[in-house]
Amino acid sequence: MSLEIVILAAGQGTRMRSALPKVLHPVAGKPMLAHVIDTARGLSPSRIHVVIGHGADLVRERLQADDLNFVIQEQQLGTGHAVAQAAPFLSADKVLILYGDVPLIEQPTLERLMAQATPEQLALLTVELEDPTGYGRIIREDAGEVQAIVEQKDATAEQRAIREGNTGILAAPRERLLGWLSRLSNSNAQGEYYLTDVIAMAVGDGLRVATAQPQVAMETQGANDRLQLSELERFFQLRVARRLMAQGVTLIDPARFDVRGEVSVGRDVSIDINVILEGQVEIEDDVQIGPNCYIKDSTLRRGAIIKANSHLDGAHVGPDSDVGPFARLRPGSVLERQVHVGNFVELKNAHLQDGVKVGHLTYLGDSEVGARSNIGAGTITCNYDGANKWRTTIGEDVFIGSNNSLVAPVDIGAGATTGAGSTITAEVPAGTLGVGRAKQRVIEGWKRPEKIKKS
Ligand code: UD1
Ligand code: CA
């Protein structure tokens, strides 16, 4: 049976108190709606329809993709009305309804649900709740068959005591669904066209309503305010943390670890507290990451060590190299094997060959550094002349003295040495010593100034 998915995402989300449409608020750095779309894609539907309204232009702009059909719901007249806006575009046998603000729903749960949707059976995802306040209640007859859903505001005291709540997620045969939608009325406590009313209509038409439940209630939890958003975030992060631990990562504290993107990990990786991994991060075997590190779009090869408080973005750290504490690797930082980058070092577009050492307080930008070279403390490449960026090339086995200014473009040949405190403005040929600093003078009989006494 062919499948289409309709995602409802038109609501305002007043309780977010935000200029940003609710469904664009991020969980793990990605809009909630994008999570739902990705999960929907995993089910290989023929088409995904996204019903948008509040902030429609921004939502469409952010999430535009070839496989998405955005449908505008001008006025938010209810969940049934929202699905009806997508009706003219539907052609598959089966339709699954999802919600843009329910981002943690998992594919296996939806697969279990959809397996129960047949031409003669509607499938509804329900959840058993400690406190079902606000949810539609599932009304079952004595034998346990679902009869209807009653919204909180329309429910009697007796019905409100029911703890089986409606998640809103359902799968139904398309033709039947479209018929029921066209028959919805808004004569209820909220004056809305309720999607939930299709349940009683299905039963009236002789269909059975089958139910399934999520593995955990959080899967179907929506985010109506920022507190709930933070709860979804933490739950999501713990889920990622558990998966990584199952793959052989030691997390010192899974509650203080965040992933905002795609992470691949090897075995025996150890990650200390307050580490954030963002974008595409690849971590090979035996890597150690110290506390308070931010690592984005980077690759850490086998045995690399990232020490506390380091900030990496677009970096490649080669095998057995070590970085930090307090290092900043900006895009284009490439460390080959056994490179040492110490504290308060900033690299940008810098290629460091095997065994290079940059121990302290240095900036290398637009630079190539040959194998085994040592860069003294306090050295900077002056790569920018106020208009253009220039390269610094340092050969193999070079020794750059402390506190050098290397004014690019400049080449320093293999085996060359520069004196401490030098400003290097011209080539230092291979094997030579370059010294570019004022010669020391000694002034005899120098008197220090004396303090002037105030009367
Ligand atoms: C809905 C269900 C309720 C269920 C609950 C679960 C109905 C009538 N009620 O109630 O049974 O327990 O969800 O959270 O369906 N939306 C639109 N357009 C609209 C109205 C809503 O796109 O015109 C979207 C909202 O953006 C939201 C979702 O549909 O993502 C649910 O709408 P909401 O108004 O929050 O429904 P509830 O009252 O919570
Ligand atoms: Ca809701």
Superfamily (CATH H level) name of the largest domain: Spore Coat Polysaccharide Biosynthesis Protein SpsA, Chain A
Q: Which spans have pLDDT < 50 for at least 5 consecutive residues?
A: none
Strand order of the largest sheet: 15-17-20-23-25-24-21-18
Helix percentage: 10-25%
For the biggest sheet, the summary is:
8 strands, parallel, barrel
CATH architecture of the largest domain: Alpha-Beta Complex
How many separate domains make up the residues? 2
Binding site for Mg(2+): 101, 224
Subcellular location: Cytoplasm
Protein name: Bifunctional protein GlmU
Family: In the C-terminal section; belongs to the transferase hexapeptide repeat family.
Describe the protein in words.
By secondary structure, the protein is of the alpha/beta class. The protein has 2 domains: 3-220, Spore Coat Polysaccharide Biosynthesis Protein SpsA, Chain A, CATH 3.90.550; 236-434, UDP N-Acetylglucosamine Acyltransferase, domain 1, CATH 2.160.10.10. 17% of the residues lie in helices and 34% in strands. The chain contains 8 helices and 35 strands. The strands form 5 sheets. Strands 15-17-20-23-25-24-21-18 form an 8-stranded parallel beta barrel. It has a 7-stranded mixed beta sheet with strand order 5-4-1-6-10-7-11, with helices on both faces. Strands 28-31-34 form a 3-stranded parallel beta sheet, with no helix packed on it. Strand 2 (26-27) and strand 3 (30-31) form a beta hairpin. The longest helix is centred in the middle third of the chain and has 21 residues, at 226-246. The protein is elongated and about 105 Å long. The N and C termini lie far apart (100 Å). The model has no long low-confidence stretch (mean pLDDT 97). Uridine-diphosphate-N-acetylglucosamine binds next to strand 1, helix 3 and strand 10.
